[in-house]
């Protein structure tokens, strides 16, 4: 009997070893998106430092061809392939048209990105995307790039940042909910919505407590506040239908995050001033979404 137990224990440890090896060897990739000004680059900068401090090897990939200022250590930069300024000048395009061209160009030259990623296979990736929302709501290039990476066995999760300031205006908040929902349906990845800049929100301007905005339940309470706005009251039935649509899908909810851009002077100050609880809670949620297991120095043979 003791021999059978020992044999089963050995088989279980072997299975556990291979299972954890698979989980840790699969490359994890975090797709960071959100409207302009939502804090994507600040998030990548802060998260890179935080994860480095916890022992992870992190590589940030800038896929915004218009982002000239990168506060973080950039492992792969789309500007080495194409820049928005050059596209606008050569093809006489505006910023939005030029950005779409850049994404289509990256899709056609996806081999360039794949080769760059292969040289960093043991990294945890953060992808810093541009803020044009149409790239994630209906344009196909970003979706196709993501699907290609999935076929290469990358484990992806979307982190969608929304400025918490939108909660102070019911109509803007509903717009943010619709944007989040449409992005979730378009991208089709494990998806984490985050209210960023929660530390600077003016709570006295909120119609409800913060839980109402993060849990997204019973949006009918918002309609009364919308009706008090002379402009929004003209669209009462539309607002009611939009709230009903969001509730019918019942997909959107938010986590909160506090990362302050001005504190990234050095690692010590970063860890001192950072709201570590909000960041750590978010990291745990994201790790669960993409199946990341941090092994560290775990010994499976003990």
Provide structural commentary.
The protein contains 13 helices and 7 strands. With 302 residues, the protein is α/β, with parallel strands linked by helices. It has a single domain (14-220, 252-290), classed as Rossmann fold, CATH 3.40.50.300. α8 (170-187) links the parallel β5 and β6. α4 (95-108) packs parallel to α7, α8 (170-187) crosses α11 and α10 (220-227) packs antiparallel against α11 (236-249). The longest helix is centred in the first third of the chain and has 24 residues, at 2-25. Keywords: GTP-binding, Hydrolase, Membrane, Nucleotide-binding, Signal, Transmembrane, Transmembrane helix. Belongs to the GPN-loop GTPase family.
Radius of gyration from CA coordinates: 22 Å
Along the chain, the helix and strand elements come as HEHEEHHHEHHEHEHHHEHH
Provide the residue-averaged pLDDT: 85
CATH third-level topology: Rossmann fold
Largest sheet, in brief, is: 7 strands, parallel
* Superfamily (CATH H level) name: P-loop containing nucleotide triphosphate hydrolases
Tally the structural domains. Answer: 1
Number of strands: 7
Can you identify the CATH class? Answer: Alpha Beta
Put simply, the count of helices is 13
Helix content range = 40-55%
Oligomer state of the chains in this structure: single chain
CATH architecture: 3-Layer(aba) Sandwich
Structural class: alpha/beta
Unreliable stretches: 13-25, 261-273, 297-302
The best one-word shape is globular
């Amino acid at each position: 009997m003791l021999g059978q137990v020992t044999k089963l224990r050995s088989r279980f440890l072997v299975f556990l070893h291979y299972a954890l090896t698979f989980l840790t060897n699969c490359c994890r990739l975090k797709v960071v998106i959100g409207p302009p000004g939502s804090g994507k680059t600040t998030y990548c900068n802060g998260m890179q430092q935080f994860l480095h401090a916890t022992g992870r090897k992190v590589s940030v990939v800038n896929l915004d061809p218009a982002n000239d200022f990168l506060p973080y250590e950039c492992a792969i930069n789309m500007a080495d392939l194409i820049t928005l300024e050059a596209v606008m000048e050569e093809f006489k395009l505006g910023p939005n048209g030029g950005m779409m061209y850049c994404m289509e160009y990256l899709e056609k030259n996806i081999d360039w990105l794949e080769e760059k990623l292969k040289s960093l296979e043991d990294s945890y990736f953060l992808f810093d995307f541009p803020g044009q929302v149409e790239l994630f709501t209906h344009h196909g290039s970003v979706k196709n790039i993501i699907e290609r990476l999935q076929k290469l066995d990358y484990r992806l999760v979307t982190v969608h940042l929304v400025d918490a300031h939108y909660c102070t205006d019911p109509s803007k908040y509903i717009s943010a909910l619709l944007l989040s929902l449409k992005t979730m349906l378009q991208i089709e990845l494990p998806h984490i919505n985050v209210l960023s800049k929660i530390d600077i929100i003016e709570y006295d301007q909120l119609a409800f407590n913060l839980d109402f905005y993060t849990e997204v339940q019973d949006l009918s309470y918002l309609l009364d506040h919308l009706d008090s706005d002379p402009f929004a009251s003209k669209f009462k039935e539309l607002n009611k239908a939009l709230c009903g649509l969001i509730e019918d899908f019942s997909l959107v909810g938010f986590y909160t995050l506090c990362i302050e851009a001005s504190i990234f002077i050095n690692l010590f100050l970063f860890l001192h001033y950072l709201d570590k609880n909000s960041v750590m809670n978010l990291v745990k949620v994201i790790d669960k979404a993409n199946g990341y297991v941090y092994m560290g120095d775990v010994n499976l043979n003990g």
